[in-house]
Specification:
This protein is an alpha+beta fold and about 775 residues long. It contains 32 helices and 15 strands. An 8-stranded antiparallel β-sheet has the order 8-9-11-10-14-15-13-12, sandwiched between helices. The two termini are about 50 Å apart.
């Protein structure tokens, strides 16, 4: 594309760039066109000057420009006195254009000297590319840089690796983030650049075609992200994912993210393997007098050598279909990686397992699953070579499947693996550790398919159980675990455990103590693998209490006594007066029971900028006991003496609360382009013998609990007890309510009015 480089305002260059960005080109074609545009412009701008050269470095040197990329350019010269004037002639139009420019003016020796002292400069110059002028200058710089890089590879690669670890710590793993940074996160483009740098040092091979393809996919996405939004930089934010997916012809945002996650995992796995190769290559050479490396047997046909797991010399994957699982289990149990050559042989030569699997195959799978944290790396290695999907075809549907829920920190497949890791630490708590591990592996296997993931998972299990060679009774028990894997946490946090109907529902669902024992351990493993927002001391206590009560029912004994109140709180209840007890971030309010207390307490806490993470409300001997777990929305915790005073004041007079909260909402309103999904109201008629349970599922917001409880009061309902929980950005609040006469709420018209009030309360205040 022709542009006019003589215009000092840079309008011609900017217009040409903008025309390309707005045009039909996509993916690699756009990157090439942008590089060609700037190459042509710089060539014309330099003209026929002697003793100088323009070179591109970094992403521009690799011809990998995105619409928002910096233009990294070095003006090389051979000692010209007028080089400053020449540089300004080139730089000023680019500055005027508004295009970001990273520039320097150096002699060849100066540029090489800077690279020797500055790792970032060195990495950029490894991609140096001649653009215009004296090619000998460009070639001389490249030769000096590569010579220095290869000479100092041991020290410099250590710095590159340290930088990669720092990036991973700061930006997280690209493959498991809702809004990943395509460049800086682990598994992003920076890791590909590190692999190229190691290859340039002649330490390891150049990145494979798989890695190059994965990097190209990330660059495609990055290009469209830059085209759409200059504000997000390289971070693929949620509000841009659907538009980027459409521009790149993906079916939807989920399909886009699966491809992004798959690319990131390919890169991260290759980077880990590259660093292991680099460590081996940089070790001091063996002396000729030393013995050859030893091979330590790990399992039949499997040995360890030089810190890697390999196949024995006489192992034959084509004749031994169980070998792949035996080698994986041996590697995970030993905490060692499978060698690249071994993975290649297993992927290419392994015979398919007969169905049902022989006992040895199931045993090796369970040994692999029970290996603890070392399972993750070995499973990922098998997955990267396509072995997991070959063994378990259902895995293809959950592989790299995004969760799109801030509570979850992993994709579906990685969550399942992490759940197995957590379950492996709980196997001593159950009588069937094999079913616990399999339950953890398959509890969300239905999430990759249309429909309710629990129903789908249960439907898949007969085929899975038959393939693995499970007994029908074990397959049925496994199906029960999958069907009810959310039963305990949902019931414990949303239902009144003092209501006999609650405990009876759980006991009837599980049927026996063995299943309850397994379900309890699976609940803990699942929640811990989900993320910090899904598990904590509060939820653990509730689940433990529910399990103890259900165990007693199944054993035919009386449920254990409620231990909601400790000694100090029992004293407050006996005193019969309003009091507030604060213990860390837990606030307990005890007061003579009366209608409308819950919305008063919730409003007072919201007024002090406190987010209610969970809450439990109940009545004991005529006293309302409400326990809130809170955290500050902004800054630090408030002055508790002021909070106590406001809670006491609200008991008698809450007339100013609504206006005060509305003012607070206006002061701290947050602009957002995302409209959360509509709230949902669910009526549970059989969850209690004496009250109606109304459950609200909604997006969290300042003062939401206050508005919900006030809406119930406006609808003429009395809240007998409540269970509220905040899960990331979502809330699930369950209220046990009765009407003004103390009966269940059964009138359809009244229910509809209550539902309308609750949905309105969930909307953002105007």
């Amino acid at each position: 594309m022709n542009v006019d480089p003589t215009r000092s305002d840079g309008e011609s260059l900017r217009a040409a760039r903008d025309e390309l960005v707005a045009g039909p080109l996509r993916r690699a074609e756009l990157r090439a066109a942008l590089a060609d545009l700037f190459d042509g412009w710089l060539t014309d701008a330099l003209g026929a000057e002697r003793g100088v050269a323009l070179v591109a470095v970094g992403g521009y040197g690799r011809r990998e420009l995105a619409p928002g990329s910096d233009l990294d350019v070095v003006l090389l010269h051979a000692g010209r006195n007028d080089v400053k004037e020449l540089a300004e002639k080139i730089w000023y139009p680019i500055w005027d254009s508004g295009i970001k420019l990273d520039h320097s003016v150096r002699t060849v020796d100066e540029a090489a000297g800077v690279a020797r002292e500055d790792l970032k400069a060195m990495l950029g110059l490894l991609d140096v590319r001649h653009v215009a002028g004296d090619e000998e200058l460009s070639a001389s710089l490249r030769a000096q840089v590569l010579t220095a890089w290869r000479r100092d590879a041991r020290r410099r690669l250590s710095d590159v690796r340290a930088a990669a670890l720092d990036r991973a710590e700061k930006y997280g793993e690209l493959a498991f983030l809702l809004e990943p940074d395509l460049k800086e996160s682990r598994g992003g483009l920076r890791d590909v650049h590190a692999m190229h740098a190691a290859a340039a040092a002649w330490i390891v091979d150049a990145p494979s075609d798989d890695v190059k393809g994965a990097a190209s996919r990330l660059m495609d996405v990055r290009g469209e992200l830059h085209r759409r939004s200059s504000r997000s930089g390289d971070r693929l934010v949620l509000q841009e994912q659907s538009a980027v997916a459409a521009a790149l012809s993906y079916d939807d945002a989920d399909a886009l993210m699966r491809d992004v996650y798959d690319a990131a995992r390919t890169i991260a796995f290759a980077a880990d393997e590259m660093w292991r190769r680099a460590d081996t290559a940089l070790r001091p050479p063996r002396r000729w007098r030393q013995r050859p490396p030893t091979r330590r047997p790990l399992a039949f046909g499997v040995v360890e050598q030089d810190g890697e797991v390999m196949l024995a010399r006489d192992a034959e994957p084509a004749r031994d279909p169980v070998l792949v699982l035996r080698a994986a289990a041996a590697a995970a149990q030993a905490g060692l990686p499978l060698s690249r050559h071994t993975l290649d042989r297993l992927a290419e030569q392994s015979a398919p397992l007969p169905e049902p699997w022989p006992w040895a195959a199931k045993d090796a799978l369970l040994s692999l699953l029970g290996s603890g944290p070392d399972l993750v790396a070995v499973w990922e290695a098998l997955d990267q070579r396509g072995i997991v999907v070959r063994l378990l075809p259902e895995w293809a549907a959950v592989r790299c499947h995004p969760q799109r829920n801030a509570v979850h920190r992993f994709t579906v497949d990685r969550h399942l693996v992490e759940a197995v890791v957590e379950a492996s630490a709980l196997t001593r708590r159950v009588s069937r550790p094999d079913l616990l591990l399999l339950g953890a592996l398959f509890h969300d296997i239905g999430k990759g398919y249309p429909g309710d993931h629990t129903d789908v998972g249960v439907a898949l299990l007969p085929d899975i159980g038959a393939r693995l060679g499970l007994r029908p009774a074990d397959t049925d028990l496994l199906a029960t675990l999958v069907r009810h894997h959310l039963l305990l946490p949902d019931t414990a946090t949303r239902r009144d455990l003092d209501d006999p109907a609650t405990v009876r529902l759980v006991a009837d669902a599980v049927g026996d103590r063995t299943t309850l024992e397994l379900l309890h351990a699976l609940t803990v493993a699942d929640a811990r693998a989900t993320g910090p927002a899904a598990w904590g001391d509060w939820k653990a206590r509730l689940v433990d209490d529910l399990v103890a009560r259900a165990t007693a029912v199944l054993a035919g004994t009386a449920p254990p006594a409620d231990d909601l109140l400790d000694a100090s709180l029992r004293d407050l209840v006996r005193a019969g007066v309003l009091d507030v007890h604060v213990d860390g971030d837990r606030v307990t309010v005890v007061a003579p029971d009366r209608p409308g207390l819950l919305w008063r307490w919730a409003g007072a806490l919201a007024l002090h900028r406190l987010q209610i993470r969970s809450a439990t409300a109940t009545s004991v001997d005529g006293m309302a006991v409400t326990v809130f777990d809170v955290s500050p929305r902004f800054g630090s915790l408030p002055d508790w003496s002021v909070v106590r005073a406001d809670l006491r004041r609200m008991y008698d007079d809450a007339s100013s609360l609504s206006a005060a909260l509305a003012e607070r909402d206006r002061a701290y309103a947050r602009a957002s382009t995302l409209e959360p999904a509509p709230a949902r109201v669910i009526w549970a008629d059989d969850a209690s013998e004496s009250a109606t349970v109304v459950e609200v599922r909604a997006h969290d917001a300042v003062g939401l609990l206050y508005r919900l409880t006030a809406a119930l009061a406006e609808g003429g309902l009395d809240v007998r007890s409540a269970r509220m929980s905040t899960l990331g950005a979502e809330v699930v609040d369950a209220f046990y309510v009765v009407d003004a006469s103390g009966r269940k709420v059964e009138d359809p018209l009244q229910r509809q009015r209550i539902e309308d009030l609750l949905v309105t309360a969930c909307r953002r205040p105007a």
